[in-house]
Design a protein that fits this description.
Number of strands: 20
Bound molecules: the ligand Cn1cncc1C[C@H](NC(=O)CCN)C(=O)O, zinc ion
Shape: globular
Number of helices: 13
Helix content: 25-40%
Structural class: alpha+beta
Length: about 500
Amino acid sequence: FSGSLSLEEKRLFQYIDEHQDEFVQNLAEWVAVESDSIQPQLRGEVTRMMKIAAARLQDLGAKTTLVDIGVQQLPDGQNISLPPVILAKLGEDPLKPTVCFYGHVDVMPAKIEDGWKTRPYILTEIDGNFYGRGTTDNKGPVLAWINALSTYINLNIDLPVNIKFLIEGMEESGSNGLEELIQKEKDCFFSNVDYIVISDNLWLTTKKPALTYGTRGNACFSVEVSGGEKDLHSGGVGGIINEPMSDLIALLDSLVNSSGCILIPGIYDDVIPLTEEEMKQYEQIEFDLQEYKANIGVKKILYDTKEEIFSHLWRLPSLSIHGIEGAFYEPGIKTVIPSRVTGKFSIRQVPHMDLSKVEHQVKEYLENVFSKRKSPNKLMVSMQMGAMPWVANIDDPQYEAAKKAIKRVFNQDPDMIRDGSTIPIARMFQDITEKSVLMFPLGAADDGEHSQKEKISRSNYINGTKVFASFLLEISKLHKELQKASNLKTVT
Ligand SMILES: Cn1cncc1C[C@H](NC(=O)CCN)C(=O)O
Ligand SMILES: [Zn+2]
Ligand SMILES: [Zn+2]
């Protein structure tokens, strides 16, 4: 499709093809850092990752600062430092639009015994896929953006826009401290930003590019049941007491039924109905149910039509149970009655659910279910984290620019999709900075973010670098047209 490529684009794309192994090497270096923000003992590695990313931006000539955002109090009361947030800028030409790219370089935990086929922190190429924790979520896309910039710089092609970066190290832990930073920087770092781009989700298929115009939020809960002050012998005492684990299992089982319907009274009250235009969006999306099931590795999906599937993935709440702390989970049987167990679950949020209302509904319901058991054990329900959903205006001009860039590289139009996962900062950006936010996924549906087989394909990583390079040209052209139009308006 090189017919319509400009000379600049041809040079950019050729450079990217020729230097792809350098870009792969960059990814391998970043994946090798175990920047897991969930486990406190690895916090030093996350901070080290921030410094590596900052150094890479400095090499590009960006003015980079590592902003200290304070400490995080852990559930056990201990305080550990939060990894600093990178604010960087490259170019301050008032005649150019300013694009701010957001990404995160922290990752979810990964242990070889979770069932990884390759070492999670050693980038391994198999059949055109790069396996490793963080390859697609979110180190690959962050590097694709940086590599696209380094291509302009190494080719001495003038950057068509001013660039800013906000890169954090706590996205997988709920973006602690980020909202305050954005509030603080609203009228300085963000004041001249025209567009915000986030690339932290996936396509809906493995072949067709997509642009994302919505994400769900998430409300994370812990439900603790505690009995006496010590674990008990299940032979010596079993049979005559209310066991905390039995109480907890009953509580967790009361949350959602086998059809995925959430049983908490009132939880669906504020969900807005499917609109005509939303339904039209869904109809335009190519969707192969068999392929989708294979991509996510499941045999059965609760719904048959794409409208129902998209609705339940994107614009309806879902409740997932994640784990139980305090219960013996190693292999083998430990015949003990755990004295304190904590269940963890989360409820994805959609417009117009209200987080404090959901928190109240959950607490009231679980206390009600628990009281029916007449158990002397102690119940404690708490919401650990709450993030809001985000929905963009798909007529926003930067979606047009992104569609053009995708057309140049992939020779096809993207699917316009929403995402069921949460990017806490998207809604924060929208509410606090009131700038337009574009979600520009690079990874394919089978990339397995958070799973034991996380990967990004070579083609998605390299084509992603090209599409970002092309996007900078497109957004610059579009911005000029918009300015001309608005000048015309003010003149006439
Ligand atoms: C930390 N956290 C708790 N609830 C939600 C999150 C964020 C996490 N976000 C991503 O993975 C974005 C990548 N698509 C998620 O959606 O689980
Ligand atoms: Zn993630
Ligand atoms: Zn992510």
